[in-house]
Model the fold of this input.
Amino acid sequence: MKRIAIILDKNLEIGAASNVAALLMGQASLVEPSLYSERPVLDKDNVQHAGIQYSTVILKAGENQLHTLIKLLPIDAAELKCIVFSQIGQSLNNAFDQYSLEISSKETEETKIVGVIVWGEEELVRVATKKYSVLK
Done:
């Protein structure tokens, strides 16, 4: 079984939190297309539904907890993958080149992480994220 955990800064307003979660999920699906089914999931009225294949949970954490999580996760590990989003990204709407340049010139902690997505084997994701509570 596979699992996805999206961990968001607990101080984000609901709209910002939703935006960060959507951006992280979108990027993760580009990195690993198997997160979603290749076949459309259609109801009897031919309306397409999301074809997510992994159990997904959205959690909350403090800024320091997000940085700690990132440091504990193995970089480029095959069994557990991770992507982050930062305050820099939030502040640069429709300015991808500037965003990319700013991110590449900073250490991770300087970017002020506001969201992390982790996915892989269910047990590994659960162990990595067990400290965090469900976002309500």
Remarks:
- The CA atoms of residues 38 and 51 lie 8 Å apart.
